[in-house]
Automatic annotation (TrEMBL):
Regions crossing the membrane: 52-77, 89-115, 193-212, 293-317
Xref: PANTHER family: ATP-BINDING CASSETTE SUB-FAMILY B MEMBER 10, MITOCHONDRIAL (PTHR43394:SF1), ATP-DEPENDENT PERMEASE MDL1, MITOCHONDRIAL (PTHR43394)
ABC transporter domain residues: 374-609
Keyword terms of this UniProt record: ATP-binding, Cell inner membrane, Cell membrane, Membrane, Nucleotide-binding, Transmembrane, Transmembrane helix, Transport
Protein name: ATP-binding cassette, subfamily B
Chief place where the protein resides: membrane
Compositionally biased residues, Basic and acidic residues: 1-11
Signal in keyword set: no
Family according to the record: Belongs to the ABC transporter superfamily. Siderophore-Fe(3+) uptake transporter (SIUT) (TC 3.A.1.21) family.
Originating organism: Asanoa hainanensis
Cellular compartment(s): Cell inner membrane
Length: 638
């Protein structure tokens, strides 16, 4: 289970900072960067399936042998059975050719089946490996990775390799063994003729090598362009992207970007399809010319009264060479496909090599009964080594069951502090502890079981209300689901819908209003029941009734839990056991509302500016406060 399991909602994206820190491959790596992996690494993927690989090679060798039997039988028919007019021998030899053809067909099916089996298993494992590796990546990785890039790596790159491995592995093995068998049989039949024919092989190899590197370059570019296209689709054809493009009048510009990328992709596809076609055609033509040379040499010798080879050998030899044309062409084509797939493997390994920054120690422990005591001991954090500290010298104690409200100007580090509690990021200095245990010494599922994060950007899957609610607590009963929804003040609304709890929430939950989505997220967290809660209150203005419903739901959720709230509501702050004021990553004030108002410092100024709150105010004054509360925090990117 990942540490983000209890996190309700996707952490806020940061357009402005996406480029900072270590560049990730995912952030639009140059499309033509050479990332060819070592062959050893690719073959290692197949090692687990070596028994099947041995079976495949055995079947293919058998197929190759069966395929060269017929020319020998043909030679015997022409040179022996026909001159002797031996009917029995003719039937016997022709029957043998029919059996060989049938056996060849059967073995062809077996090799195809085996190759697909191996290919699909390897690709399935690779796909799962990429997905699970990416799942372990931290929040920061996702912030800096372009949307759509990872989908492209899994769908286009693994899919591309899959196509090559599964579909052409069979013909690779079949053709290689067939070509080898034909070579051996040709030497046995007439070594002189065979040597003449084999002389052209090095030329083919040279051509194949040159074409291979050309193809790899094209493949790398093409995959990069595919990723670009996927990213544009992901960004432009989502609810948020469509809204942005429409309201900003950028639909045409987006379509133009898509058109340009699509055209570039079409050009690459064209180049890929045509690369080396002339070379290939010339080579195929020269192969088909070889039989003419055989008849020429044998014919001239025969015309001059010398019998170099028998007519049967000449016919059988050329029929065997015909069997070489197919495999040789296929092999050269395969060489190109292998080059292409190596480029794709390179892109896949690049993702697999991305280091995981939030790791679980081998000695990590569980946390059986969590009291919910949260402590920051001298915590410092920065998003990259070359950046200033976002948080510094943070010493904070949040006793079990109490509420701490974080307030401060925008960019002061409140959200980052919340991320540290949920171990979405690790501190650079000091330690964050729950019940006295450093989060880095806990198992990741212990952290996600202990800390729940409700962010303002509620994330719901495109699934039913029930499935979304059960995401964090799959074993919860219908009664528990309903109780959670009642507590979150959303049950009545859900049951009033025609499909009730089976209503599909739509992409990212857009079938529901912002306030309803928040309450669904709160119900989901109530079901999950974490002892520690990080609450990022929404800044968006809700109407009074929704506001009250959300507030009641939040109160219900926080009850009995250690709550660290990034607070925007006066009620949250006023009732907090402790208010912590952050300024440029440092705690500058702490105390209760009344204490801090009396102090007359930064909090007092902030409270007066945002809520109009002054000394001695009662909670009832809240109703008169500015409901938008935008002064504390504004997010240009939301
Ligand atoms: N992924 C990131 N990479 C680099 N810098 C970041 C990243 N996320 C946040 N920051 C920076 O860290 C600082 C603190 O950000 P944080 O989101 O914690 O502040 P905040 O108090 O929650 O602000 P707001 O109220 O606007 O949400 C800001 O200067 C911000 O630009």
């Amino acid at each position: 289970m990942s540490s983000s399991d209890t996190h309700d909602g996707a952490p806020k994206p940061r357009r402005s900072t996406a480029g900072r820190g270590r560049p990730a491959s995912g952030r639009g790596a140059p499309a033509d960067k050479d990332i060819r992996p070592p062959l050893r690494r690719v073959t290692a993927l197949f090692r687990r399936h070596r028994r099947w690989v041995v079976a495949l090679v055995a079947a293919a060798c058998l197929l190759g042998a069966v395929n060269v039997v017929s020319p020998f039988l043909l030679r015997a028919i022409i040179d022996r059975a026909l001159p002797d007019k031996n009917a029995a021998l003719i039937s016997y030899l022709a029957g043998g050719m029919i059996v060989a053809a049938l056996a060849g067909a059967g073995l062809g099916v077996v090799t195809t089946w085996l190759a697909n089996l191996i290919g699909q298993r390897v690709m399935h494992e690779l796909r799962v490996q990429v997905f699970t590796h990416l799942q372990r990546m931290s929040l920061l990785y996702y912030v800096r990775t372009r949307p759509g890039e990872l989908q492209s790596r899994i769908a286009n790159d693994v899919g591309g390799v899959e196509n090559v491995v599964a579909n052409t592995a069979a013909s690779a093995v079949q053709n290689a063994t067939s070509a080898a068998a034909v070579g051996v049989a040709a030497l046995v039949m007439s070594w002189k003729l065979a040597l003449i024919c084999l002389a052209v092989v090095p030329l083919f190899l040279l051509a194949a090598i040159r074409l291979g590197s050309q193809r790899r370059g094209i493949a790398r570019r093409r995959q990069g362009q595919l990723a670009n296209l996927t990213a544009i689709v992901e960004e432009g054809l989502s609810v948020a992207g469509m809204l942005l493009a429409t309201t900003m009048g950028r639909r045409a510009a987006l379509a133009q970007r898509f058109t340009t990328e699509s055209q570039a992709l079409a050009d690459s596809e064209m180049r890929a399809a045509m690369s080396g076609k002339w070379l290939l055609s010339t080579r195929r033509a020269s192969l088909t010319m070889v039989p003419a040379v055989v008849y020429w040499v044998a014919g001239l010798a025969f015309a001059h009264g010398a019998v170099v080879i028998s007519i049967g050998t000449a016919v059988a030899f050329t029929s065997m060479l015909n069997r070489l044309v197919g495999p040789a062409s296929a092999l050269q084509g395969l060489g190109l496909q292998v080059s292409t797939s190596m480029a794709l493997f390179g892109r896949i390994f690049e993702v697999l090599d991305e280091p995981v920054d939030i790791v679980e120690k081998p000695t990590a422990r569980a946390l059986p009964a969590v009291a919910g005591d949260v402590r920051f001991d001298g915590v410092g954090f920065r998003y990259a080594d070359d950046q200033p500290w976002t948080l510094d010298g943070i010493d904070l104690h949040v006793p079990p069951g109490t509420t701490t409200a974080l307030v401060g100007e925008t960019g002061s580090g409140k959200t980052t502090l919340g991320y540290l509690v949920a171990r979405l990021v690790d501190p650079g200095r000091g330690a964050v502890r729950i019940d006295g245990v450093d989060l880095r010494d806990l198992r990741l599922d212990a952290v996600s079981g202990a800390v729940g994060l409700v962010s303002q950007d509620t994330y719901l899957f495109h699934d039913t209300v029930r499935a979304n609610l059960l995401f964090g607590a799959p074993d919860a009963s219908q009664e528990q689901v309903e109780a959670a929804c009642r507590a979150a003040r959303i049950h009545d609304l859900v049951v009033s819908l025609p499909d009730g709890y089976d209503t599909v929430v739509g992409a990212r939950g857009h079938r529901f209003s912002g306030g309803e989505r928040q309450r669904l997220a709160i119900a989901r967290m109530i079901l999950r029941d974490p002892p520690v809660l990080v609450l990022d209150e929404a800044t968006s203005a809700l109407d009074n009734e929704t506001e009250r419903a959300v507030q009641a739901a939040l109160d219900e959720l926080s009850r009995g839990r250690t709550t660290i709230a990034i607070a925007h509501r006066l009620s949250t702050v006023r009732h907090a056991d402790q208010i912590v004021v952050l300024d440029r990553g440092r705690i500058v004030e702490r105390g209760t509302h009344d204490e801090l108002i009396t102090l007359g410092g930064r909090y007092a100024r902030l409270a007066a500016g945002v809520w109009g709150a002054g000394p001695g105010e009662t909670p009832a004054d809240e109703a008169a406060a500015d409901p938008t509360r935008t002064g504390v925090r504004s997010r240009p990117d939301q």
